[in-house]
Automatic annotation (TrEMBL):
InterPro entries named in the record: Pectin_lyas_fold, Pectin_lyase_fold/virulence, RHGA/B-epi-like_pectate_lyase
Signal sequence, start to end: none
Designated name of the protein: Rhamnogalacturonase A/B/Epimerase-like pectate lyase domain-containing protein
Residue ranges constituting the Rhamnogalacturonase A/B/Epimerase-like pectate lyase domain according to the UniProt record: 326-481
Organism of provenance: Yersinia kristensenii
């Protein structure tokens, strides 16, 4: 027979009566049967053959019985399991007699061993599936677990109980099983813990003037201020305390008139650090008590640099305790629009640069006048103001009001400079309000600009600036009065130090209004995108693009009140999409493959030499000024669905017919226009007309008339008397 069942064990529960327990599987020897009794408390006992039990049916395929000397008590468990030693006892000889039953027994033995191993796996702690991230104990306990060592080790009950008890022993406890929770943070603030007549926790105010009242007050965030404070940084001179002592600085400058608003600024909390070198003194975040200062504005620069330090190699500094952005006022700025804060701004910049990671600086509202500004071309610098009309950096002398120029440091490019929420103000001789050269991945948000040279000045000059974002950049007479308006608003060009273009930048909602020349100027710039915003009411142009500019896009912008032209394009592959222009779009003789689509416009003009412009799906004469419409002197211009607001109809721009000088017979005419055209042939005595397209030639006979040619097509005309010929450019004029 075969091993016809997978059963290799039996399980029983005692009833106090039964002592004979059947099993349904084959065993080869009585010793193959292992019997285990399980007490109600979980204790397991392996019974001994012929002492604790006897077995019948050895060798039978149907199984047999296990008999206990006494009935199994009620509630006890009993398992009968076949356990075979992993050996092979069958000895077969080559060319010996074939004993089928001997072979079958050997195979049965192997099968039963496999079943035995399989049954062991059913007892293992296993994952439900190969993809499972847990082991399923199937509601069984896991016993004899070691105490945890690593953070992710399983925890035993004994270990958990000990930790709970240890923490409980450190806790103020009550004998009751429940106690109400304390009030919230706001309700607890500044109060003492007490218990009412029901034993419930409450908070009460300490008696005014009591020791408890004083201690609670001193323990508050501003508690040390009740112990006195320093009036200005000058009070740090000679002021030495024990390590860790804390003091409050009321204001960097003495007195309440430190700013235009009449408020003290630059103060804060300081901690004395006895082991900090005095060489770290910078007057803002680290203050040495042995650096002298007479309190005068004229000597601030010397104080900030530590000039006059009497103990240059010594230790012991007051260190500012802060968790916020570095504040410009910490370095002694007045911010009153009159005092020259140049030294303080430089110290602020130098400290930011010295930070290994966070280089974020905060410039509060105020007018920070400075004769010259530092170079901010340092990776990771992040400047944040209080708003583009509230925080004003006012340059009074330098030709660059705000400078981000990596070339000054000999760097090929600097990354990750962020400037937001402030205003840059220049003066009548200022050439560049914001000068940016050799930079990449920079960000400007909500930056305003004003006051520069009206003949040559620029609000935002970008030379070799790459993959950067400029959002809500403003230079507008509608937002502020300007005594000296710059000539250019935004200028993108080539870096003189590297001779590389500005590329792949994005401008979101630029507002350029009322500059003296061109609102946006691209002298040599590729793949820049302008989205939304406006360039209007400028002295000459809204936008100008020179021949060195390629693949620049203007989308959803407004242009009006620019007297010469709203857009003057001489670049390549310029895209103007869904804009409106109130004066004119002029495509110059260097303009190539410009695309103007959508929007409302007054006048569109292509000049002689303009090549392959595509003008489509837009309206002309929208503002009805009397000088609108279209003028097409370009080469291979495509006009598609052009709506005339005055005519209330689609218009079809047409170019005039021009004569063709007929040469000697046979005369070959080639359509070299790169556009479609018709050739009109009249009179003469034509003997043959051949049409040629690439390698294909067709005889068209001798009839005169109008022949339609695609770009590159040729006509070979043989005649005895020359006909009169003319060409009619066709373009793509259709609705």
């Amino acid at each position: 027979m075969t091993v016809s069942t997978e059963i290799n064990h039996e399980e029983y529960v005692g009833n106090g009566v039964t002592s004979v327990f059947p099993y349904r599987f084959r065993i080869l020897k009585a010793s193959n049967m292992v019997v285990v009794s399980i007490a109600p408390n979980g204790t397991e006992t392996t019974l001994i053959l012929n002492t604790g039990f006897t077995v019948s049916g050895v060798g039978s395929y149907a199984g047999g019985n296990v008999t206990l000397p006494n009935p199994l008590p009620e509630g006890w468990g009993l398992t009968l399991t076949r356990v075979l030693p992993a050996i092979q006892e069958t000895d077969l000889r080559n060319q010996g007699t074939f004993f089928a039953e001997t072979h079958e027994d050997a195979f049965d033995y192997l099968t039963m061993l496999i079943q035995q191993v399989g049954s062991w796996f059913t007892l293992a702690l296993r994952k439900p599936t190969f993809l499972s991230k847990f082991y399923d104990a199937k509601k069984n306990r896991i016993a004899n677990l070691a105490d945890p060592v690593s953070a992710q080790d399983a925890v035993t009950k004994g270990y958990a109980d000990s930790v709970v008890q240890l923490n409980l022993n450190k806790t103020l406890r009550v004998p009751e099983s429940f106690i109400e929770e304390l009030p919230d943070k706001t309700s607890r603030s500044g109060k003492l813990l007490a218990f009412n007549d029901q034993g419930r926790p409450i908070v009460v105010l300490p008696e005014s003037g009591s020791a408890a009242d004083v201690l609670v007050t001193l323990a508050s965030i501003s508690g040390y201020s009740y112990l006195g404070e320093l009036q200005s940084v000058a009070d740090f001179i000679g002021f030495v305390k024990q390590d860790g002592a804390r003091v409050n600085l009321k204001s960097w400058h003495k007195g309440w008139a430190a700013t235009a608003e009449g408020k003290p600024v630059g103060g804060g909390s300081f901690i004395y650090r006895a082991n900090v070198p005095k060489a770290k003194h910078n007057g803002g975040t680290h203050i040495s008590p042995t650096v002298p200062w007479d309190g005068l504005q004229s000597s601030i620069a010397a104080y900030l640099t530590g000039a006059g330090e009497t103990d240059p190699t010594g230790l012991g500094c007051w260190v500012r305790d802060y968790q916020c952005k570095v504040n410009l006022t910490w370095f002694g700025t007045r911010g009153d629009g009159a005092t020259d804060d140049v030294a303080s701004i430089q110290a602020f910049r130098d400290y930011l640069v010295s930070q290994p990671k966070k280089k974020k600086g905060y410039i509060p509202a105020g007018v920070y006048s400075h004769s010259s500004g530092p170079n901010w071309a340092v990776k990771g610098i992040h400047l944040v103001g209080d708003g583009k009309h509230n925080t004003i950096l006012k340059c009074t002398t330098s030709t660059r009001a705000f400078n981000i120029d990596a070339s000054e440091y000999g760097q090929a490019v600097v990354y990750d400079v962020v400037v937001e929420n402030l205003c840059i103000e220049g003066h009548v001789t200022c050439q560049n309000l914001l000068y940016v050269e050799n930079t990449s991945h920079i960000t400007m948000r909500n930056v305003n600009s004003r006051e520069a040279n009206p003949l040559t000045g620029t609000a935002l000059k970008l030379l070799f600036t790459v993959a950067s974002v400029f959002e809500n950049f403003t230079c507008s007479i509608n937002e502020q009065a300007m005594v000296s308006r710059p000539y250019y608003g935004i200028h993108l060009g080539v870096s003189p130090s590297r001779n590389l273009k500005s590329t792949c930048n994005q401008f979101k909602n630029p507002i350029i209004e009322g500059v003296m020349g061109s609102g946006i100027r691209l002298t040599s710039a590729d793949l820049n995108t302008f989205i939304g915003g406006t360039s209007e009411a400028n002295g000459q142009y809204g936008v100008t693009l020179d021949a060195g500019s390629r693949m620049n896009t203007f989308k959803g912008m407004g242009f009006e009140s620019n007297p010469t032209a709203d857009i003057l394009d001489g670049g390549t592959n310029t895209v103007i999409k869904q804009c409106y222009t109130g004066t004119a779009i002029i495509l110059l003789n260097t303009s190539k493959r410009a695309q103007i689509s959508g929007g409302l416009h007054e006048r569109i003009e292509t000049q002689t030499g303009c090549d392959s412009a595509e003008i489509s799906n837009l309206t002309i004469n929208y503002f009805k000024k009397g000088n609108g419409g279209y003028v097409d002197n370009g080469f291979a211009t495509a006009w598609v669905r052009i709506w005339d607001e005055i005519l209330q109809a689609y218009v079809y721009p047409k170019k005039p017919r021009t004569a063709i000088t007929v040469g000697a017979t046979p005369f070959t005419y080639s359509n070299d226009s790169r556009g479609f055209e018709s050739v009109l042939m009249v009179g003469g005595n034509v003997t043959q007309i051949l049409f040629k397209r690439d390698a294909d030639t067709a005889n068209m006979g001798t009839s005169s008339g109008q022949i339609f040619l695609a770009p590159g097509d040729q006509l070979v005309i043989s005649y005895s008397t020359a006909p009169a010929m003319s060409r009619i450019p066709m373009g793509e004029n259709h609705t």
